[in-house]
Write a structure and sequence with these properties.
321 residues, alpha/beta, TIM Barrel
């Protein structure tokens, strides 16, 4: 993470891109900083401004355009706060904001303006107390930021506390690091996993088949060896993966890596990401085409998150005639 690209000019120069992209990249990065691990950047095609991996991480002038309906908090998360760092949107599970740190800053991130400074990043005592008081919470979701940005020792302290709460039965970890920084799945992380008593589900985040290289497959294999369940969630992004063939390839390579497709999310309408939006009807058509190519277990559920709904809203595919 310390060696990641953090300058638009450096990334553009390194990838042999048109220098005319630099001013827009620098301007957009003022609002939401750039961070790209070098392992992820190595998978981007040099000289191609339309590379689907590059489009996910390079700040552009398009982020600065105002778009109706795109807001700082598209999911109303600030209204779901139960304690500092603890969100509860749905019955039976709660989401713990473990850290603000991510290995990569995806330009469509729905938490790009989340008020991380409003919580105490050094302690989770209030959140843990709230979980302990509510015996309806049987699953805790570690999110962020990216929970794997924490050191192994801090992860262990947190999960030791969670395992001491009798009604917590499952642990879910939402992370992009095994994909963008697979070296994070190292001996220390595996030691932490081996000491956990709770069943663990890793929800990874890959959007394009080119993200899954040999190092990512090896990282997934190590996670599977710990008996963790591996799922993937994808965001449908214009110019990245908005066609059925790309998504079918992604499902195939994920399955080969031991990861099951889980959700395909319609873009959360966060300010600065309107240029990634795919209209809902087109999304349903794409998933219908995908369903016609693949067995059902490789077709992710198309979903949108709606503030106040009791669950994610799933959208029915429009099947080809």
């Amino acid at each position: 993470m310390a060696n990641a690209f953090s300058s638009a000019q450096e990334l553009i120069t390194e990838l042999g891109l048109d220098p005319e992209l630099i001013p827009g990249g620098q301007a957009a990065a003022q609002a939401f900083r750039l961070r790209v691990p070098r392992s992820f950047a190595s998978r981007i095609r040099r000289g191609d401004p339309n590379d689907p991996l590059l489009r996910q991480v390079l700040p552009t002038q398009a982020e600065l355009a105002e778009a109706p309906g795109f807001t700082a908090d598209p999911l109303g998360e600030r209204l779901s706060v139960q304690a500092p760092g603890l969100l509860q949107k749905y019955q039976g599970r709660a989401l713990l904001i473990t850290t603000s740190a991510c290995a990569v800053h995806c330009r469509y991130c729905f938490r790009r303006e989340f008020p991380y400074e409003d919580r105490d990043s050094a302690r989770w005592s209030a959140a843990l107390d709230a979980i302990a008081r509510d015996d309806s919470i049987e699953e805790v979701i570690l999110s962020g930021g990216d929970p794997l940005s924490l050191s192994d020792s801090r992860l262990a302290r947190l999960t030791d506390a969670l395992q001491g709460i009798a009604h917590v039965r499952r642990l879910r970890v939402h992370t992009r690091q095994p994909v963008v920084l697979p070296a994070r799945v190292d001996a220390g992380l595996m030691s932490w996993l081996e000491q956990l008593r709770l069943p663990v589900v890793f929800v990874l985040h890959a959007n394009h088949p080119n993200e899954i290289d040999i190092e990512v497959r090896e990282a997934c294999a190590r996670l599977r060896d710990s008996r963790a369940t591996l799922l993937n969630q994808t965001v449908l992004l214009r110019g990245v993966n908005d066609d059925a063939n790309t998504l079918a390839s992604l499902s195939r390579v994920l399955f080969e890596a031991g990861v099951l497709p889980y959700y395909l999310h319609v873009l959360d309408r966060v300010r600065g990401a309107a240029h990634f939006d795919v209209p809902e009807e087109r999304a349903r058509l794409i998933v219908g085409q995908l369903a016609a190519q693949l067995p059902g277990y490789l077709v992710p559920r198309l979903a949108r998150e709606v503030h106040g709904a009791p669950a994610k809203v799933t959208l029915s595919p429009i099947l080809p005639r």
